[in-house]
Queue: 2 jobs
Job 1
Amino acid sequence: MRRSRNSIGSKMTFTIVGVSSLFALLTIMVQLWWNYHSALDNAVADIDRYTRSLLPSMSHALWDVDQPLLKDLVSGVGVLPSVSGLELASRDGVYLNLGQGVPVDPGHRYLLLHYPLSIQEQAIAELTVALDRQQIYLQLGREVMVIVLGNGLKMLLVIYVILTLANRLIVRRVEALANFADGINLSELTKLRLDPKVAESRDEIGLVAQAFSRMYQRMRHDYALVRRQQRALTRHQQELSQTVEERTARLRWQTDANRQLAQISLSFLNVSVDDIASLLAQVVRQIGELLQVERVSVVEFEDDRLHYRAFWSCIPNAQSADEQLTDVARLKRRFTNNSMIIIEDVESISGRWPEEYRELSSLGIRGIAGFAIMDGDALVGVLALAQVSGHLEWNDDKSQLLTQFAATLNALLIRRRREGQMLLLQRQLLRANARLAKQAATDELTGLVNRRPFSARLEQALGTEALLLMMDVDFFKHYNDSYGHPAGDEVLRRLAQALKQALPEDALLARIGGEEFAAVCPGQAPEVCRQLPQRLLDAVRELNIPHGASPHGRVSLSLGVVNLLGVDSVRDAMGRADACLYRAKALGRNRAEWEEH
Ligand SMILES: Nc1nc2c(ncn2[C@@H]2O[C@H](COP(=O)(O)OP(=O)(O)OP(=O)(O)O)[C@@H](O)[C@H]2O)c(=O)[nH]1
């Protein structure tokens, strides 16, 4: 630590030097004062003692008028140090002035000492000794240097000792303490060690250091506690915000899912039976994307067989399981007491349901959720969601949603099934009706149309250049009688076939009675028209069916032909043709007769 002028060392130095200097000055002053007075007193005492010892001799010398002796004696006093002058004045006029004499005004410099000279207690003269203080001052001046030097050295020694002690006992330890305090950094919570010399001493600084150390320990402890609390608070806040985020996401997901489910339910209500399959395909895809699973399928049980009604997978070219290989009875058994089966990890059922485990594993399914589609108490199908790339991520919200969806799906499947059954019934009815209608319009024996459709066609051809041909088998009663009724039936069938082939394609041939045929032949070329009856007769002749009871020896026909141009009613047309036929019969049979105009 850099020591500044404000350091304890500097302050102590300044203080000690200042106080010591002052004290030394005072000491010197007092000593000088004391020395001065001692020197003055000593000088006065010396002068006094010496002078008084000489006074009797001086008195006698003066009395004896022994001038030289007197002068010697007085001069002897003048030899004393600090005596600057002497004056002896007797009553009888003897006067001696030695040295510098006695100043009239002594002032501060001189001290005058007066000694009476007497003989027989009678004063005869007075000796005045002038003491010059200057001498004492000079002597003191010499002593001052010694005193100052002595005191100065003493003072320096004392300062050195005090500063050394202060440095060792205070400054260094305070600096160590300051360094310790400087090193305190709560954010890092470092463990600081105070110098044992500072911390272990039992003086005030040691006590302060120990108090500091304890305070730091408490601060560390408190700070660690606060940090722990802060960390716990932060963790709690993070957990709280995470929980809020998760709940918000779940709520958002639920809202979105419910909205989609409502839309799906609505679309189920409005969909026509024919569109159910495509709607289901679309909906399973929607469910798959909403629940983020890789496969969704809807299967229905029918006659103890399983049918995939919809299958979707986000994996290209993924195939549903083979309907034939699924053990429907086992699948139904699993759903007997469970409306849903959630297997997040297929491995978890390896011991409990080994067959299902094998089957699912062989399909590469690693997690699956199945929801029963119930029709009342009957299990009619299963909605299944599967994961192949990993385990199934599941929660109650998804279960709740899919349970609802399965119920909606059930309603749709029931509707599909019931409407499908109705449609099937309708189609069967229509087919039966068509069959009946066809039967009603068709002659069962020959396969030709009967009278009703023929009449309708005839009506259409009225007033056109069409021909109406009425045909009747000759002597057919005899044939039946001779060959039997079944043989007669066969003849009718063969005749129908031969006549149909002989007629133009657009002609309509009908069996309008027991052994009666009729044909409407739309407008043809005159040549074709003219030859047509003969073509028909020839066709019958070519059949060459033996008929022993007929004069012709074989089965033959008689024809009555009418041109429908100018004919305006079926009844009229049939009547006219009948008349022609009658004429043909009358003229010998096996011939055609035209209406005469
Ligand atoms: N095998 C058979 N015979 C039928 C059928 N429908 C009617 N016949 C018979 O056809 C015969 C018609 O006889 P008739 O009306 O007397 O006329 P025909 O014997 O043909 O004599 P002509 O018409 O005068 O030449 C009856 O004997 C009927 O039984 C049928 O579907 N099958």
Note: The mean pLDDT is 88.
Job 2
Amino acid sequence: MASQKSQLTVRWLVLLLACIMMIGNYYCYDNPASLHNSMQTLMPSTNFETYYSLLYTVYSIPNIVLPFFGGFFVDKLGAPICLIIFSSLILAGQIVFAFGASVESWPFMLMGRVIFGLGGENLTVAQSAVLAQWFVGKELALAFGINLSISRLGSVINNYVSPAVADDLAFSDFNGVSMALWVGALICGGSLFTAFMIVPIDKAATKRLKDTTKFNDDLTSSLLEDGEDGGGNNRSKASSFDGIRAVSAERMSTSAMLLHEDIDEEEIRLTDVKNFGVIFWLLSLSCLVVYGCVLPFNSFASGILSERNYFKAPSSSCVLMNPGECSSGLLAVNATKNPARDDGDFSEGVSNCPGDDFAPVFPTSLDSVTCNGVSGLSCDKSSYTFSTVTSSDIDCDDDFWSKGCAKNYCDAYSDATKTSDSVMSIPYFISAGLSPLLGFLVDRIGYRAVVASLAPCMLVWVHLTLGFESGSPIAPLIGQGVAYSLFAAVLWPSVPFSVEAKSVGTAYGLITAIQNFGLAVFPLIVSQLKSANGGLYLPNCEVFFTGCAAAGVLVGALLNIFDARRGGKLNSIDGKGRKEVADRGPPTPLMTT
Ligand SMILES: C[C@H](NC(=O)[C@@H](N)CCCCN)C(=O)O
């Protein structure tokens, strides 16, 4: 049945709907990354980075196990019904997450991310299984590419829309962050609606194909019975039968017959996993380490780019003329009278520090500074006293800081956040543009295993550059986008070539579960590395990402070796490989005479 769906024109509508359905998932998955700085301002805490990492970790922890069962249920219950269940979960999760942000509660926000995660990853599994049913052979990677492209548009739109909503759309009872998350919930509602549209289309196609198959079966068996009657009619009956066989064979494309047997009647068991071969396990390992330096990197990209390029720490020699007074704003004694200069040299002609792209210097201590009576200020507290001011004390949502005492710092922080958020979109922007083209090429030239080892090579360069050089981040981020797009273009369409057709859902579930092990653990490692390095991401976190990419190169090399030994399926154009073609011989006819 699966193979025959790939012959129906309506598959393109299914693809379009499946892609639109994923926008909500991708938009909301990356909400925390794009709202990182706004959340830090809304809910300042010394544990902020840990809570922030947990938003990704709790999404992934249940998914270390669940997609495996999700994939199994996809194989058992059918992918379309699973689309509705999982889309409902992402909507419910996003609602709880947005509610949590509205009441500024970490426990609710984390609970929302758990529920969202239960739906999000399983939805990816169900959707991959739908695509593998409707698209085969020379259209499979193209379908995955188009899908990833539109999904990633969701990530890119989120990077622009969410910070803008958070900045500009705060109402009295709804802070900006929660407004941005409620917009996400609206988009998830749209995804659920789209999932509901796919189900009847899939059902109608399944029924139509079942009817056609039954009609063909009835016709051929009645002709066979007639043919067995003997007598002079045999020759003409036989030629009618040949005709039917030819028409039927034409209906199933050659690649469909080779790659996708009808799986409806075959029993599917979780224990089928033990039959998954080395190629599947290498693909899974590659997915773990290579995605480990793509998705977690994106979660921290805003902070990494701020620290590296747009909000660099000023040198310790750069100090305020009056370190115990406000640096800029309505409460500064006189902004021009409290400049920052290197080494405390305030003589005429010494230039200001720290300069463009650096965080402005803020007061080192404050003694009972009050907003009382200053027009244009509505401060959170009546007076502010700090023996030592640290960056986490500066709450730019409070007028005291943003308008009164560290205006230059808050303005520069807001500008740096906007720049980091748009620059960090580069990889996903590239993925949105390149994925369909790469999918089309992979379907035509193969070399899946080769590409799966070249992409992490590029990632090694990207993360070494980000970790150890200080120039513009544009070139490495373009590299990250190209490498990620190449890798995704070959990884996901390779899965159906590594297992039997009946286990494709289970295989997608398992590889997603393994991927989520990395997505759960890696953000925690990154935040620990940051804490251990005095709150700085660089270079340690980038060393970690480089290590993941290097492991990807190694696994990629093994993938090529084992693929070559097993007939070169992954590197072949059609995913059949030398050995399988030889084994299977010509396409199996529907019946033998
Ligand atoms: C296609 C691939 N998908 C995944 O990696 C998912 N397991 C995670 C998607 C995150 C949004 N829910 C990709 O995005 O490259």
Note: Confidence is low (pLDDT under 50) at residues 228-265, 580-593.
